[in-house]
């Protein structure tokens, strides 16, 4: 009877509540390229004995800690995973100088000893990011625009990983979708991406509050990068523009008047001479 009770207890423990428990599992979401990072798989054995802790990236084992074996720690070659053996233990794995290839799905698997052989498995995605080194570039912009002009400009991000998200603002309001031209990102040999977002619209008077139209492009990546490129384009007040156009016609008209007068005078002189 007592034996049976013990078995029931073991089974209960084995099934759930008291056995092996994850205390802290941490795989950073984003790591800037070139930095080191720490993966944590901190567990409570709750009275059980540890058999092994294994780490996998995309299904391939790269680190193992087995207390009862010699050596206790083993590192396996997996592309993009540089384990710092010295700094890694059963609960913490340190990766040195992460590369773009370090990105992937990381899994920690904890296995308890016989007889229960309980396991704990947790996984998470890690993404190595390359923060763009420069501001986005605005191309194709003219110095001045008037109501009625067509605005056709591009904003291009500096190379990054993942691709930056570009946003155009017209007078501090996000540009409507129908003004945008989306182009496919360009990927270089290192795997870094460059994106371009075009802005294409017919400028109207409404785009020039207080006679100024301001166009701004921002590039952002996750939480890391949020730099802003701003271009403020000024234009004449419509009334002024009309006035200057009148001046333009006047100045075109005046010389013609003068020259026709001159021609008339010349003709008069010729006629006078002929007499
Ligand atoms: C904007 O970029 C696209 C794609 O690179 C290009 O085809 C287009 O000519 C560019 N337009 C301007 C105004 O620079
Ligand atoms: C970027 O920064 C601007 C101003 O500093 C802020 O208004 C905006 O919300 C930020 N965007 C993101 C995606 O963090």
Question: Could you characterize the architecture of this molecule?
Answer:
By secondary structure, this protein is α+β, with helices and mostly antiparallel strands. The chain folds into two domains: 12-129, Immunoglobulins (Immunoglobulin-like, Sandwich), CATH 2.60.40.10; 137-234, Immunoglobulins (Immunoglobulin-like, Sandwich). The chain is 19% helix and 40% strand. It contains two helices and 19 strands. It has helices at 2-15, 238-274; strands spanning 21-26, 30-32, 37-44, 50-57, 60-65, 73-75, 92-95, 104-112, 119-129, 137-139, 150-156, 165-170, 173-174, 180-182, 186-187, 193-194, 196-202, 212-221, 225-234. The strands form five sheets. The protein has a six-stranded mixed beta sheet with strand order 2-9-8-4-5-6, with no helix packed on it. The protein has a four-stranded antiparallel beta sheet with strand order 10-11-17-14, with no helix packed on it. The longest helix is centred in the C-terminal third of the chain and has 37 residues, at 238-274. It is elongated. Keywords: Disulfide bond, Membrane, Signal, Transmembrane, Transmembrane helix. Residues 1-19 form the signal peptide.
What topology emerges from the helices and strands here?
Layout: H1 2-15, E1 21-26, E2 30-32, E3 37-44, E4 50-57, E5 60-65, E6 73-75, E7 92-95, E8 104-112, E9 119-129, E10 137-139, E11 150-156, E12 165-170, E13 173-174, E14 180-182, E15 186-187, E16 193-194, E17 196-202, E18 212-221, E19 225-234, H2 238-274
Parallel strand pairs: 2-9
Antiparallel strand pairs: 1-3, 3-7, 4-5, 4-8, 5-6, 8-9, 10-11, 11-17, 12-13, 12-18, 14-17, 15-16, 18-19
The structure holds 2-acetamido-2-deoxy-beta-D-glucopyranose (NAG) (2 copies).
